[in-house]
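Re: [ENG-882] Designed sequences occasionally contain unexpected residues at chain ends

Forwarding the minimal case from QA. Structure tokens:
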């Protein structure tokens, strides 16, 4: 048993870190490298469920499959994830036919991107819980700020007590899949498994069912959106990215991150809606950067959980939704500098016109081969974490 456990640790550790924080594993300064990132249910809780553990995939329960009604979108071919973690467009036309965020930042009105009030700033941390999450929780308590934690199911069953602490302190909890999977690259059934197993673990620890989900790496398209919607979740994206994970992975420094946050503050007078930033409670580096970054924002905007800032009030969980006004998701969405204009029809092709890609060459979209190259380059650029 011990041997099997050790093997599972190595396999799963590689898989997890390869997908969520490639440099964190190589850095001796990160706490993540010293912590178990594999899934062995924490025995402090008498779990009712037998969760996927080790390197096993979160195969869905049969009854979960019945929750998703048949639709043409389910026939969309999954994208391809290379061994290097690059997401490749499986669409034979090479176009962004199904509003994949990964290609050009495409979002839909049903995605939360901004906060409704420009004086409020959505604040979220992805990929935990880890031990280091406690350090962030302690800091947030000192400034009396509540945020959203988009948690990974494997981490939930490893650190259920930390998830409970976050929830009990008033923070909002959302789903970030079981294995940090790139959702557009996996089958319909596995998308359901990734989401529902995470939901179940959260429900078992907290007694509530999240309505917010965040796709790892932002990798969402209309096929994923359809399944997410059928399961009763709302995608929660972001308007600005701290790139905090790049401090260890390369391409970002703490000073650079703090400079970006200062720019966010400087942009506040021009905003018509509230910003919504992405950070990670992944390791000591990202949490340390957050503890320096949030004081830059805090005096200028009201830091808030994502669902709350989108007008959800008590709607963050299925058990409490409906006790207040309906979620104001659509009004929370507006094109940002790095977010594509979108069409309201979920099955319609979306003109890939975001600034991100335009900077790489708008004409590229007329050429599927070039477009694919641009998309792959962008994907490589953003590496494999969000
Ligand atoms: Zn993530």
């Amino acid at each position: 048993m011990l041997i099997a456990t050790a093997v599972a640790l190595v396999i799963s550790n590689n898989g997890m870190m390869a997908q969520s924080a490639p440099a964190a594993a190589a850095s001796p300064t990160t706490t993540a490298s010293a912590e178990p990132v594999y899934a062995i249910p924490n025995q402090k809780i008498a779990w009712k469920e037998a969760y996927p553990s080790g390197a096993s995939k979160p195969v869905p329960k049969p009854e979960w499959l019945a929750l998703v009604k048949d639709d043409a979108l389910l026939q969309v071919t999954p994208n391809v994830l290379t061994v290097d973690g690059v997401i490749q467009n499986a669409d034979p036309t090479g176009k962004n036919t199904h509003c994949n965020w990964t290609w050009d930042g495409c979002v839909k009105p049903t995605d939360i991107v901004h906060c409704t009030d420009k004086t409020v700033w959505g604040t979220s941390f992805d990929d935990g819980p880890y031990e280091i999450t406690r350090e962030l929780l302690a800091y947030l308590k000192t400034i009396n700020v509540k945020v959203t934690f988009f948690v990974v199911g494997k981490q939930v069953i490893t650190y259920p007590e930390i998830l409970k602490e976050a929830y009990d302190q008033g923070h909002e909890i959302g789903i970030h899949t079981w294995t940090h999977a790139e959702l557009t690259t996996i089958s319909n059934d596995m998308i359901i498994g990734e989401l529902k197993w995470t939901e179940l673990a959260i429900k078992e620890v907290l007694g509530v069912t999240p309505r917010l989900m965040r796709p790892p790496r932002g990798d969402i398209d209309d096929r994923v959106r359809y399944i997410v919607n059928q399961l009763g979740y709302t995608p929660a994206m972001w308007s600005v990215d701290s790139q905090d994970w790049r401090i260890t992975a390369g391409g970002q420094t703490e000073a650079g991150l703090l400079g970006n946050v200062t720019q966010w503050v400087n942009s506040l007078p021009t905003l018509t809606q509230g910003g919504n930033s992405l950070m990670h409670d992944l390791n000591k580096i990202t949490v340390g950067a957050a503890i320096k970054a949030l004081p830059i924002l805090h005096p200028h905007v009201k830091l808030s959980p994502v669902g709350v800032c989108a007008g959800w009030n008590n709607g963050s969980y299925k058990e409490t939704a409906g006790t207040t006004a309906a979620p104001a998701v659509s009004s929370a969405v507006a094109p940002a500098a790095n977010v594509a204009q979108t069409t309201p029809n979920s099955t319609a092709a979306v003109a890939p016109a975001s600034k991100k890609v335009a900077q790489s060459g708008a004409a590229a979209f007329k050429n599927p081969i070039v477009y694919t190259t641009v998309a792959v380059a962008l994907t490589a650029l953003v590496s494999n974490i969000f």
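QA comment: On inspection the terminal residues look reasonable. The beta strands are 80-81, 87-88, 120-126, 148-151, 172-175, 212-213, 234-235, 240-241, 276-280, 302-304. Proposing we downgrade this to a documentation issue.
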